[in-house]
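ARCHIVE CARD
Drawer: 12
Card no.: 0347
Subject: one protein chain, sequence and derived structure
Cross-reference: see card 0346
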Amino acid sequence: MKLANLSRSLLRSAAVAVVALGMAGCATTPGSSEADVTVSDPLEIPNRFVFAVNETADILLIRPATEVYVGVVPDPLRQAVHNFIQNLLGPLYIANNLLQGDFDGAQVATGRFMTNTILGIGGLADVATEAGIGDRPEDFGQTLGVWGVGPGPYVVLPFLGPSNVRDTLGYGVDTLADPFRIGTNAAGADNAMYGRTAAAGLDRRSQLLREIDDLRKNSLDFYATARSLYAQQRRAAIANDIAPATPDFPDFDEPAKK
C-alpha cells in the first residue's frame, strides 16, 4: 500500500509538471514572432486563473523536485530514462504518421522504434540516432490538423498546461490508444503507468530548467507569451517545420555583470 500511495503521489506531482511540459511545446519558428499568430482566447479569464495555479504548483513543487532529480541522478541514467520514455511513444508516432498519410515518416518511425527496442535494450540506448535514423514524433492533435481541423479556442488545462480544443481531443485519443497504458491496465500494473508519468514529467522538466526561468524573467506577460509560443509551435509541428519533441526557446542575453 505504501508503494501504491507513493506512486500515486509521484503521479500527481508529475502531472502538475506538465504545465511546464506544455511549455515544452512552446517553440518559435523561423521568421515568426508573437504578432504573427492570432489566437482565439474567449476563455482568457478562467485560462489565466488555471495558468496561475499551474505556475504556483511548478514553482513550489515541480521545479524544486526536478532540481533534486538533476542533482542526484547521474547524467547517463537520466539519458537512459529519457530514451526509454521516448521509445514507449514509438507506436503512437507510427500510427499518427500513417493516419496523416506520411508513409515515409511511418517507415522512419518504425525503423527507429524497432532499432531502439531490439538493439537499444528496450529503448534505454538511442541506437537509432547513432545509426542516422531520425525522429518523427507525431500526435493525434497534429493528425487532426493535417486533416483540416482548426485549433478552436485556446485553453489552459489543469496540470496539462497550454492547449486548444483540437489538441485536447488529440491528447485524449493518444492517451486512450497508448499501448503502454492498455498493456499495464490489462495486467493490473497501474503502478507502472504512474511511474512512467512521474518519470516523464521529471525528464521533460529537467530539460527546460533554464529556458522556463528565462521566459518567466523576460516576459512582460508570461501568460500571453506562453499562449503565443504554443500556437506557433503547434502550427509549425503540423506543417512539419520543426519536431515538437525538441522545442527551440527564445535566446535571452545574460545580464551584464557589474
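Annotation on reverse: The chain has twelve helices and two strands. The mean pLDDT is 84.
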